[in-house]
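Render this sequence as a predicted structure.
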Amino acid sequence: MIIHAKRVEKHPELSLSFADDEKIRQHLALQKKAETETPQNVVRNEGGTLKSKALLWFSLCIALAMAIVFATARSPGLSDLAFPIMALLFLAGGIGGGKITKMKGVEIWKSFIQGAVNLVPGIILILMAYSVKHIIVHGKIMDTILNGAANLIQGSKPLTAAFLVYGTTLVMNFFIGSASAKAFLMMPLLSPLADLVGITRQTAVLAFDFGDGFSNMLFPTNALLLIALSFTVVSYPKWIAWTWKLQLMILGITSVFLAIAVTIHFGPF
């Protein structure tokens, strides 16, 4: 990534999002020019004081939102309210920041609508991503997948079994992004199977971790990945076009480590 960043810094046209970035740069340049030429805006932002206050207000709202998320993380009842509260705090931060900089109500409303429109494609993708899990769980397909994987693992050699755990976790990660939810479903099956096929439970957990980890940055059913991409000009196809080589490298490296774990009987001495 560092090498790529340095290369793009020298030759911006090498970036896959160069054309989209150019549009944003031109838009920001025109916006800055308009603000400079408008006396009213000059008065508003004199000395940068109002902008600083607005930034401070928005930062406090974000900090409060993060604090609520961490505080409610271990409480299932309250954690369901964390995201709606976070959304309200972001809204309060945006509106409050506009009021602090003395923007008119119409200007704040236009900014809100523009931002909402920009997020629409991401929202649709996120709904589609979550629908996959809903269909799999309520269609009772999840149990079938786990049962088939368990039967394959049960009659396999240690090295094959470890990679089957890895592959099963990869498949499950496409449908269930949450590591804790996957562990709740899979570990009661994997632990005794690991003992039967001759791999340590630590190796089974390692295979699970590998399968759960890097594919989070690969599968389109991962809502967090789609949310992150929606904040940028990088589309999912562009993301895959740029990262697929890195994903293959990580797949190869983790496979080597998993094979070593099976060979040395990775676990407590």
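Summary. The radius of gyration is 24 Å. Confidence is low (pLDDT under 50) at residues 41-47.
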